Amino acid sequence: MKYLLLFLSVFLTNFIYSQAKLDFEFDYAQFAYDSTNNFVEVYYSFNQNSLKIVTDSLGKRIDGSLKIVIEDSVSGEIILDNQWKVSLSIIDDDSDHNQSLIGIISFILPEGILKLDITGADLNDANNVKSIIDQIVVNPILKDEIGISDIQLAYNMIQGSENVNSIFYKNTYEIVPIPNLVFGKDQPVLFYYIELYHLDNLEQDDSMLKLNQLMLNSRGNIIKGKDKYFSRNADSRVEVGSVVIANLPTDTYTIVLSVIDSVNNKGVSTSKKFFIYNPDLFYDDTTATSNLAILATTFGSMSEEELDDIFEKSKYIATSAEIDKYNKLSTEDGKRQFMNEFWKLRDDASDSPRNEFYVTYFQRVEIANQRYTALSRAGWKTDRGRVFIMFGEPTEIERYPNQIETRPYEIWQYTDIEGGVSFVFADLSGFSDYSLVHSTKRGELRDDNWSRRIYVR
User: Fold this and answer.
1) pLDDT at residue 350, rounded to an integer
2) Helix 320-327 vs helix 332-344: angle between axes, to the nearest 10 degrees?
3) Cα 108 from Cα 430, distance rounded (Å)
4) Closest Cα to residue 15, out of 117, 121, 122?
5) Are residues 99 and 161 in the same domain?
6) Which long-range contacts (CB under 8 A, 24 or more apart) does 205-208 make?
7) Are 113 and 11 part of one and the same domain?
8) Is 317 within 8 Å of 346 (Cβ atoms)?
9) In this model, does residue 299 exceed pLDDT 70?
């Protein structure tokens, strides 16, 4: 078993769960630890009303169990397989059992693509069980780049605390998580916590960093947005904030937090989906969509540095004429208009307010950064990242990481492109930075003798 530190101090996106009456949910957040691991907090909740009350000599109580299995998706190695008991005494019959038992389990997890299998159960009712399966990509936050943690959403206002014995105490704050990620009438304010890392810049000591906060609805519309500037007076810092959501209608939303270093043209972002249930508020489709296209609204909130960053990541699908045109633009308004037209031309469903191509493209950029970052280069700048962004998930990947006579290499197959094409990437440097050495795709690098390049003499 890989090294793992465990503390008793759980994530609600794209999950699969068994049908059960047990009201059990979990969420998680990753924080920096070292160059090969992240510190991961798993937040869990049991609704008291969904657990069976039992009585013994000590009185009435409810008992739940939490089982967590974490497996390396590539090697199949079991990193964790453990179970915990959660109990609560019931004071009297008038107690509000509709509240939740909330807790935290924390781990140090190694780099990799990990499968999480989390099961909540009623220890007093064997049939009352709920299992949730999901995947977590652990990418350690490197020291030579500005870093940002996952977003932890909180149940109530995040305030300074001296209660160091609380399992919810962290960095002078007491943060009670909200594992079901549901807000609305009874939870009218969203509270969040993030950690920022490696902010020092010896060459630009006086430059400011910007924290940009955006909230989007399921249509991709920007609902709220604001900026905050802060100095580099520390290598790391904690940011807490709140967003009033009482006036927002029922929908799935995403909060996006970005740290932008405009001097060095760098940035990093993190996001979290959540749900708002406001039964008295509904979308009015005649007014919900702005007179401007959704992307115009999106780019309208961006600075020139942010627009430049977005276009830099978009060059893989831009024509040489478009690149030349953008480079000649000198105003923010001009760049905003260009970006709106650029992505509108690539919208596969112009009758929809949501530009699926734009959303998919930048989802791939984010995944590329998670999977393929190497040698201080963001994943989207690498050869594997570029191919993934342009063509998506390969039909098949053949991996050869430990060959005796060759350097590590991978062969990606795409059966739905040009009747079937392949890309060959090799770690020529020995630092897990895979370069494209051959492809059968038209317009890509072709070297039918690529095997000679990876041969170890």
Assistant:
1) 56
2) 160
3) 27
4) 117
5) no
6) 205/232, 206/231, 207/232, 207/261, 207/262, 207/263, 208/232
7) yes
8) yes
9) yes
Element (H, E) at 367: helix 356-372
For 42, phi then psi, to 5°, come to -110, 120
Which secondary structure element, helix H or strand E, spans residue 384, and what is its range?
A: helix 383-391
In a domain, 356, yes or no: no
Helix crossing, 383-391 with 356-372: angle to 10°?
150
Beta-bridge mates of residue 226: 213
pLDDT of residue 206: 63
Write the burial class of residue 8 (CB in 10 Å: 0-12 exposed, 13-18 middle, 19+ buried). Answer: exposed
What pLDDT, in 10s, does the model give residues 8-23?
333 333 333 333 478 8
> Which residues lie closer than 8 Å to 328 by C-beta, 6 or more apart?
none
Greater confidence (203 vs 12) lies with 203
Contact partners, residue 303, CB within 8 Å, separation at least 6: 210, 260, 262, 332
The answer to whether residue 357 is domain-embedded is: no
Distance CA 221, CA 254 (A): 10
What does the pLDDT look like over 225-247, one tens digit per residue?
A: 888 888 887 889 999 999 888 88
Q: Please, are residues 375 and 433 in contact by the beta-carbon 8 Å criterion?
A: yes
Work out the burial of residue 404: count CB atoms within 10 Å of its CB; fewer than 13 is exposed, 13-18 middle, 19 or more buried. exposed
What six digits make up the tokens of 395? 């039909």
Higher pLDDT, 210 or 411: 411
135 and 151 share one domain: no
- Name the most confidently modeled range: 201-205, 273-277, 284-288, 329-333: 273-277
Q: How many structural domains compose the chain? A: 4
Residues 262 and 330 in one domain: no
Give the mean pLDDT of 154-164. 90
Helix (H, G, I), strand (E, B) or coil at 218: coil
Half-sphere exposure of 91 (CA within 13 A, CB side): 4
In this predicted structure, what is the pLDDT of residue 144? 74
Q: What was the pLDDT predicted at 9?
A: 34
Q: How much is the pLDDT for 222?
A: 81
Q: What is the CATH number of the domain that holds 181?
A: 2.60.40.2550
* Distance between first and last Cα of the chain: 35
